[in-house]
TrEMBL record:
<comment type="subunit">
    <text>Monomer.</text>
</comment>
<dbReference type="InterPro" id="IPR009080">
    <property type="entry name" value="tRNAsynth_Ia_anticodon-bd"/>
</dbReference>
<dbReference type="GO" id="GO:0005524">
    <property type="term" value="F:ATP binding"/>
</dbReference>
<feature type="short sequence motif" description="'HIGH' region">
    <location>
        <begin position="112"/>
        <end position="122"/>
    </location>
</feature>
<feature type="domain" description="Arginyl tRNA synthetase N-terminal">
    <location>
        <begin position="2"/>
        <end position="83"/>
    </location>
</feature>
<keyword id="KW-0067">ATP-binding</keyword>
<dbReference type="InterPro" id="IPR014729">
    <property type="entry name" value="Rossmann-like_a/b/a_fold"/>
</dbReference>
<feature type="domain" description="DALR anticodon binding">
    <location>
        <begin position="445"/>
        <end position="557"/>
    </location>
</feature>
<keyword id="KW-0436">Ligase</keyword>
<keyword id="KW-0547">Nucleotide-binding</keyword>
<protein>
    <recommendedName>
        <fullName>Arginine--tRNA ligase</fullName>
        <ecNumber>6.1.1.19</ecNumber>
    </recommendedName>
</protein>
<dbReference type="GO" id="GO:0006420">
    <property type="term" value="P:arginyl-tRNA aminoacylation"/>
</dbReference>
<comment type="similarity">
    <text>Belongs to the class-I aminoacyl-tRNA synthetase family.</text>
</comment>
<keyword id="KW-0648">Protein biosynthesis</keyword>
<dbReference type="Pfam" id="PF03485">
    <property type="entry name" value="Arg_tRNA_synt_N"/>
</dbReference>
<dbReference type="InterPro" id="IPR035684">
    <property type="entry name" value="ArgRS_core"/>
</dbReference>
<dbReference type="GO" id="GO:0005737">
    <property type="term" value="C:cytoplasm"/>
</dbReference>
Length: 557
RNA sequence: GCGCCAGUAGCUCAGCUGGAUAGAGCGUCGGACUUCUAAUCCGUUGGUCGCAGGUUCGAGUCCUGCCUGGCGCGCCA
């Protein structure tokens, strides 16, 4: 919480003589001042007295003359506060970093699959996950990123068996070759039971560590990870190979998971599979719904891997908070995994587990995103198109040296569009709207930042402090600046990056109004110096905010 | 059948966890550029917050029941 808001809150708290939350909120309209409190309405209800009388007593007891203009009572009993402009100026100048909070959070995101190109489906997890990590880090968490790559299971047995049968050398296959190999092996597996048996044996060889099988598998993993890294670099994601802890990493833990569940009496044999039945979960037929830990063929399903991952993250990584950035279709799965982990005591009450779910990216017309022939659209293709659009617009503007800027604007537009509305909603991937330079878009924010950069480079060295805030538009801008940390804290709690987007958009809009109405370089004396510093503070917040979203802020565009 | 999520202006979306006359952008129409970058700003137009009850000083927000759409519900992840 910003110093200003917390001080005002505690003053209200002291004046009320009650334990009620002062409910200090931003004023809904400029004519209501800067902040409002609804405390009098609450108190009046509790005391059975007229709200305006309670408000009057509250205002009389309230000591804020060192911070605010005289408080006003309005409407049914709202208390409106207007911060003194010198206090506001001081608050703008007083930005401080968050202290480390001594808590560790594990964020599981991106999760592409080995031997498959990354597609739109991976965009959201990667973009939201990066942003969530940045925000958590900013407010003082120690963040551990975990890329739970899909690199284990029957499909790799299939693929290796197919590879051997065709006499191919794994070394010659790139990612696209692997994807084709997968498709061939899938068809073969489905149509030839003898091959299917061989493939299953190959899975056993893989899981028990047969050297030749492992070597082929390792090659597939290496090729895939190298490709993912290129996409991450393109996206500006912070993910590296060090963050990859794929499903295979838990192979040795899976029997232990089963043993511990058995020991706790949580496992039941059902149709040959080892299942955990949790109270309250019923399936389509009204029958109890299991978590299948070990399949009837003796293999382990993804539930076992997810359980092992939780166990590892608590016991070895010492996580106080675990976050899963995974699409909303897996909501039930995670609910059950979390419940079972609690029952098995892998997830103690001191550790929270959250599923940060998100909606689907849809193609044109709100239909599933597919190419004309029904294939999946590669993520890199979409990014190329976005950069191309950005480049065209920059060209029309006569911008020189466009290559890097077009990257920043195109990729930034895609990422911003992904982050700017509530994660739970589906959205249509519409490049025209994303790259639009007006409205709540990435380019609009980047433009505000670039404008300020230009202005500041013409202004000379900023002298440091904001000292004057005479114009209402300056005050509006300053007030917004003091709200940055509160907004980021909210995002760290709710894990909803769109709140930060909304904030930054309002800030950029307020800046544009200021820019229209308040000359900076053409003004003189203290006004000029103060406005330059207000611009510098705004630029810093825009830069920090875009940084938290994982979006580049070019100096010119 | 059960569960999760969503339904707010013609379109795309906010709405700060129950507060004042529900806000932006796009679109429409009209205005402001020898610019501190007009990729901007100002004005205009636009809503039965899916429907019906309930809770209370006060509901887009909370509770119940419906309607519509998306998704999920035993060995894929």
């Amino acid at each position: 919480m910003s110093a200003l808001v917390s001080v005002l809150s505690s003053r209200l708290f002291d004046a009320s003589g009650s334990t009620l939350d002062p409910e200090l909120r931003s004023a809904t309209k400029p004519e209501f001042g800067h902040y409002q409190s609804n405390l009098a309405l609450r108190l009046a209800n509790q005391l059975g007295q007229p709200p305006r009388e309670v408000a009057a007593r509250l205002v009389a007891a309230l000591k804020v003359d060192d911070l605010c203009e005289p408080p006003a009572i309005a409407g049914p009993g709202f208390i409106n506060l207007t911060v003194r402009s010198d206090v506001l100026a001081a608050a703008v100048n007083a930005r401080t970093a968050f202290a480390p909070r001594g808590e560790r959070v594990v964020v599981d995101y991106s999760q592409p699959n080995v031997a498959k190109q990354m597609h739109v489906g991976h965009l959201r997890s990667t973009v939201i996950g990066d942003s969530v990590c940045n925000v958590l880090q900013y407010v003082g968490y120690e963040v551990i990123r975990q890329n739970h790559v899909g690199d284990w299971g029957t499909q790799y047995g299939m693929m290796i068996e197919q590879l051997l049968e065709e006499g191919l050398d794994a070394e010659t296959l790139d990612l696209q070759g692997l994807q084709k190999l997968y498709e061939r092996s899938r068809r073969h597996f489905d149509s030839d039971s003898a091959f299917a048996d061989l493939a299953r044996l190959r899975v056993v060889a893989l899981q028990t560590g047969d050297p030749a099988t492992r070597a082929n598998w390792q090659h597939m993993v290496d090729v895939s990870l190298a490709d993912f890294e290129q996409v991450y670099a393109r996206l500006g994601s912070a993910l590296t190979r060090d963050d990859v802890v794929g499903e295979s990493a838990y192979n040795d833990d899976l029997p232990v998971i089963v043993a511990e569940l058995e020991q706790d009496g949580l496992l039941t044999e059902s149709d040959g599979a080892s299942c955990a039945f949790l109270p309250g979960y019923v399936g389509r037929d009204g029958l109890p719904l299991p978590v299948i830990v070990r399949k009837s063929d003796g293999g382990f399903g993804y539930s076992a891997t997810d359980l092992a991952a939780i166990r590892h993250r608590v016991q070895d990584l010492d996580a106080q908070r675990i976050v899963y950035v995974v699409d909303h279709r897996q909501a039930l799965h995670f609910e059950m995994i979390f419940a079972l982990s609690r029952a098995a005591s892998w997830l103690p009450s001191t550790t929270t587990a959250e599923h940060v779910s998100f909606g689907t990216v849809l193609g044109p017309g709100g239909k599933p995103f597919k190419t004309r022939d029904g294939g999946t659209v590669k993520l890199t293709t979409l990014l190329d198109e976005a950069v191309e659009r950005a480049d065209k617009i920059l060209e029309e503007r006569g911008v020189a040296d466009r290559t890097e800027i077009a990257q920043a604007v195109g990729i930034g537009a895609v990422k911003y569009s992904d982050l700017s509305s509530d994660r739970d909603n589906d959205y249509v991937f519409d490049l025209d709207r994303m790259v639009a330079m007006s409205g709540n878009t990435g380019p609009y924010l980047q433009y505000a930042h670039a404008r300020l950069t230009r202005l500041l480079s013409n202004a000379g060295e900023p002298s440091g402090a904001v000292t004057l805030l005479d114009h209402p538009v300056e005050q509006r801008l300053a007030l917004l600046l003091t709200g940055f940390d509160d907004t980021v804290v909210q995002v760290a709690e709710t894990l909803q990056p769109h709140r930060l987007c909304t904030y930054l958009y309002e800030l950029a809009a307020a800046l544009s109004v200021f820019y229209e109405q308040c000359p900076v370089l053409k003004s003189e004396g203290e006004t000029r110096a103060s406005r330059i510093n207000l611009c510098a503070a705004t630029r810093q917040v825009l830069q920090d905010g875009l940084g938290l979203l994982g979006i580049a802020a070019p100096d010119a565009m």
